[in-house]
Amino acid sequence: MADIAWNGIGLAAPSDWEPSAIERDGLLLADGLGPVCELKWNRVQGTFSFDKHLKKLTKGNKGAVVREAEAAEIPGAWARAEDRLAESGLRAKSFLWQADGSRGLGAALHHPGTGLACLVQFFIRREGDEPVAAEVLASLRDYTGGKTVPWAIFGLAARVPVDFALETFSFQPGHYRVAWWRPASGKSGGRAPAGKGPGTHLDFERFAPASVLLKGTTLEAWCRDRLTHAPPQSVPVENGPGRIDWQGAAKSSLLRKALRREVRTIGRAWTPEAGNAVLAVVAEGTVALAECTFNDICGSFTLVPEETA
Question: 92, 141 in Cβ contact below 8 A?
């Protein structure tokens, strides 16, 4: 099983399940035969209605027959998975669906403590799919109640402070980027802010293959040219074996200082011992990120070995 975590929720899935579609608050996982699991979630304030969330699922699946599962229809492994979810604070109501000769099993989930509302459904294609679905369901967790939130996808893993909100992401061949944003107020209202105004950008980037990208150049020169938030020429870079660090003012003037609009940057890029990649973390904005916090974030950013990815 491999860990997949995205924007506040996570689960353990078979190693051949990979994200085939990614949204800010949604994932579609697939194997070699097609879709196997779909998740959609948001945060709700006040009362929560399981029935309303099931109706939303029906609207999104035209032609599908969706109904609440009776106790006698729920497999034993699935019922035990619901018990595991309850232990973690997640309430569940299971449902069944059928459409175009396909069938599925799913659950509407709610965490009263964090406001998480989640719909997860599994595509049941053959004998043996239900126990696997139950095992994956049992592993689902809401991570937003802690001090940091993990994310793990496409062979990368890291943790961010819980008050950062996912801003944007891109997974292109050779270049992965996941960007977060924390407004100066520290309040995002549960929605992704625009990333403008006072606050802090937090960027994670992975480039590969490093052996080709760095051929004939230095890590510093390459990073100054290629990173989304590259170290400005005015900021000195400290070079070490397979690693560079920088910290300073990216944009500064007497007026910016007076208006508290000076842009500070702190960054690190390195080539891990295994993986043939360049990893980089940069925090930049009008609200400086504490160096100890930045070091913890960099320490959490790793390549996941292929055998466990």
Answer: no
